[in-house]
Amino acid sequence: MTPNHEEQEFVTVLVRDPRIHKEDSWHSYIDYEIFIHTNSMCFTRKTSCVRRRFREFVWLRQKLQSNAVLIQLPELPSKTPFFNINNSQHVDHRRQGLQDFLQQILQNPVLLSDSRLHLFVQTQLSPEEIEACVSGHTKYSVADAIQEFASLKRRFPIEHEEKKKEENYADSDSESSSSGLGHSSDDNISHGCKASTVPEEP
């Protein structure tokens, strides 16, 4: 036994399960599931799962860059007029780019100190609500928001216990498509996350 056997901190992030949503008769968009599993003390929750669309990633990068001007942030996948949401290769290329972006920023201690980042990956608050929260204009704190979202929206086993209220939300979430892209016409049901096989650290 040696004292060097301390558990090394890790942050695992997956961007997956793209789903198409119709805004109206002419416009559609894709959002992606962000799954976080970590043992880092920087995070309020050790496991979380939310859904975000591309323009929210753009907002996050702009905010992180404005608060850390000396850091060169990684680029997001380029936004091109030729992007086709029905082209699986286009969608997967963007999904991988978003995952690479998060993997890099979640390894930076300076960026991890920004509460916007934590609210982005561990709650479903909109950018406007995130700004209000970090500015102290809400009745809830950053930690409160993350804990509340975890208790209401969680769809995967945490801490090896059954959540009594979880069944109340099971029917409100759409299921992922087994192949191709999932589809949803209601943004209110876009935040369900598929079950994860990664257990949370005790």
What does this structure look like?
The protein has 7 helices and 4 strands. It is an alpha+beta fold and 202 residues long. The chain has a 4-stranded mixed sheet. Strand 1 and strand 2 form a beta hairpin. It is globular.
List keywords for this structure.
single chain; 202 residues; alpha+beta; 7 helices; 4 strands; globular
* Alpha-beta content class: alpha+beta
What are the secondary-structure elements, in order, as H or E? Answer: EEEHHHHHHHE
Distance between the termini: 22 Å
The poorly predicted ranges are: 154-180, 185-190, 196-202
Number of strands: 4
Q: In a few lines, what is going on in this structure?
A:
With about 200 residues, the chain is of the alpha+beta class.
Helix and strand topology:
Blueprint: E1 11-22, E2 28-38, E3 47-53, H1 54-67, H2 88-105, H3 109-112, H4 115-122, H5 127-134, H6 142-153, H7 167-170, E4 182-184
Parallel strand pairs: 1-4
Antiparallel strand pairs: 1-2, 2-3
Helix pairs in contact: 4-5, 4-6
